[in-house]
TrEMBL record:
It comes from Culter alburnus (Topmouth culter). PANTHER family: PROTEIN KINASE-LIKE DOMAIN-CONTAINING. Gene3D superfamilies: 3.90.1200.10. This is CHK kinase-like domain-containing protein. Residues 110-267 form the CHK kinase-like domain. It holds the Pfam family EcKL. It comes from the Eukaryota. Coiled coil: none annotated. Transmembrane segments: none annotated.
Length: 321
């Protein structure tokens, strides 16, 4: 870590010295890394530093090394920095506190509270029913908090897969029926009456759990922006359940999400209308993500019978309308 980067961390935390700890992960396509930094002489034992470095040669795991892809990523880190500096949540949808954020030419540093120290030390690749519901509660509380809030400084449309930012993947699709319907599906989702701010990348890997698994915090706000809440819900459910589990468990889990959403909203909201609209958007949101996968990575394991069934339902609905 460069001296100016170290100075930023020391100043932000009021620490006397620091030691670079383990690399938590490399950022997508080699755009930097996330590190744990150990501190001395202050009340925080450690912080997490997201160090973004825009590469000269991009290495995309799916082979999408294009200028559109690069510009989207650059914008995503600007959005994430803006999010951490300008938006706050509450204890029902916990996120790490941002201690500092600064650009250094082609590099960017975000200094964040260490969620391991804050009581969320567990990461999971498999979750039980209670843990899935803990994440859905977080998502519901987040959506309630930002219902009808204009996503100023964020993506006008949240998520990394929405149609406007993915022309190349659309072009690559071989499913002609879905390809032809993609713009209409996107328009239906974008023209919802009820909108919120979406996390935008609410997969299981972006949730940090308490030791008992019943409390969660979320990280990674590169694709935070406006839209229909179902987009976060379908993406989360698809990230932690296979097709058989989805068939069996989605109805009850959706009920849990809407129950939590109702509890979190004030009485001014017409909840009945909101629930009716968003439930009707579930299959559209799922199909929209399925469209992205078919163009981006046609052999992806999430392209399954459940996704295909929902897609067919949506295409049938569009034919009838």
């Amino acid at each position: 870590m460069k001296q100016e980067h170290e100075d930023l961390v020391l100043k932000a935390c009021g620490a006397k010295s620091l030691q670079i700890g383990a690399k938590i992960q490399t950022l997508w396509s080699g755009y930097g890394e996330i590190l744990r930094v150990h501190l001395e002489g202050c009340d925080r034992p450690s912080v997490v530093v997201k160090h973004v470095m825009f590469p000269q040669n991009q290495k995309h795991p799916g082979g999408w090394n294009t200028d559109i892809s690069h510009q989207r990523k650059v914008r995503s880190y600007q959005v994430e920095t803006y999010w951490y500096q300008n938006y706050t949540t509450n204890e029902h949808c916990r996120v790490p506190i941002c201690l500092a954020a600064k650009s250094f030419g082609d590099e960017q540093l975000i200094v964040l509270e260490d969620l391991d120290v804050a009581g969320f030390p567990v990461r999971k690749t498999y979750v039980n029913d209670a843990e899935i519901k803990a994440c859905l509660s977080w998502i519901a509380n987040f959506h309630a908090l930002f219902l009808d809030v204009v996503p100023e400084g964020l993506w006008p449309t949240g998520t990394y897969w929405h149609l406007e930012t993915r022309p190349e993947e659309l072009e690559a699709m071989s499913d002609q029926k879905l390809k032809a319907a993609a713009a209409e599906i996107d328009s239906i989702l974008n023209n919802c009456r009820f909108k919120t701010i979406l996390h935008g990348d609410a997969k299981l890997a972006n949730f940090c759990f308490s030791k008992d698994g019943l409390q969660v915090a979320a990280v990674d706000f590169q694709y935070v922006g406006g839209g229909c809440g179902m987009k976060d819900v379908i993406y989360f459910l698809g990230s932690c359940m296979d097709e058989r589990e989805c068939e069996k468990r989605v109805p009850g889990l959706l009920d849990h999400y809407f129950s939590e959403l109702r509890k979190s909203l004030d009485m001014k909201t017409n909840f009945q209308d909101l629930e009716k609209e968003w439930r009707s958007m579930f299959a559209f949101a799922w199909t929209d993500f399925h469209r992205f996968l078919l163009g981006w990575m046609p052999g992806h394991h999430k392209i399954n019978k459940y996704s295909k069934r929902l897609t067919q339902e949506v295409l049938n609905k569009l034919k009838q309308s």
